[in-house]
Design a protein that fits this description.
Length: about 230
């Protein structure tokens, strides 16, 4: 018996190196395939996450303006916007119908009340169904219109999407989405709820904010109706 290490024949060593090389090649192929699978799965997860996030998002309608913005509302006794022309805006309602909101004082142009609400605002959540019921029970005078604007929208806050909220309260007139507050900003209105009464020439009669009683809202309607020639 010898204590010397046993030498393998040269041919055996060559075969071993070939086997090791083949094993390394297979291992690299598996690593590459595994990495590709991970990349594909990661892409699918991202795509699913993005798609899922879009499911609840309120579609954004383009908003076009014509005319300068009104000065910022400050709830003072003297409103600098009174008598000024409000900007005309063009957009789609929640049903996808296109509207031009504003007028130039033609014989068929109505007076308008533009009401601003936010879906997350507790006062608005009480005011919108009350107003919808009042409008359903009390017809508007001829040539007076009411438009609602859902403004300052936030998908992370309650009562979203606002289109479902307006449907739930059976809002009877056109309602527009203003997710970034563009329409509210053009009318100078930061508080919600708030109200802008416009005459037939699209000039501001009055701007107010806060919850209104049925009688107070009727006063706004009467002001709009008095401007109709």
């Amino acid at each position: 018996m010898s204590n010397r290490p046993h030498r393998k024949p040269a041919g055996t060593r060559a075969q071993q190196r070939a086997i090791e090389a083949e094993t390394s090649t297979r291992r690299n192929r598996l690593l590459l395939m595994g990495g590709g699978v991970v990349i594909v799965l990661f892409a699918l997860v991202i795509a699913f996450a993005v798609g899922s996030g879009d499911d609840d998002a309120e579609p954004k309608a383009a908003i076009e303006f014509n005319g300068p913005s009104l000065p910022l509302y400050s709830n003072t006794a003297s409103d600098p916007a009174v008598g000024e022309r409000a900007p005309l805006f063009v957009t789609e309602d929640f049903d996808g119908q296109r509207h031009v909101v504003g007028s130039g004082g033609g014989p068929n142009d109505p007076a308008r009340i533009v009401a601003f609400f936010a879906h997350w605002c507790p006062v608005c959540q009480a005011e919108l169904p009350r107003l919808a019921a009042q409008l359903a029970n009390t017809p508007l005078p001829d040539m007076v219109e009411v438009h609602a604007v859902s403004t300052f929208e936030d998908p992370s806050r309650g009562n979203y999407p606002p289109s479902a909220w307006f449907d739930e309260v059976s809002w009877p007139f056109p309602a527009f989405s203003d997710p970034d507050g563009d329409i509210a900003g053009a009318f100078g209105m930061n508080p919600v709820p708030s109200w802008v009464v416009l005459d037939t020439f699209n000039r501001v009669i009055v701007r107010v904010d806060g919850a209104l009683s049925d009688a107070q809202f009727q006063e706004l309607v009467d002001l709009a109706a008095q401007s109709v020639s």
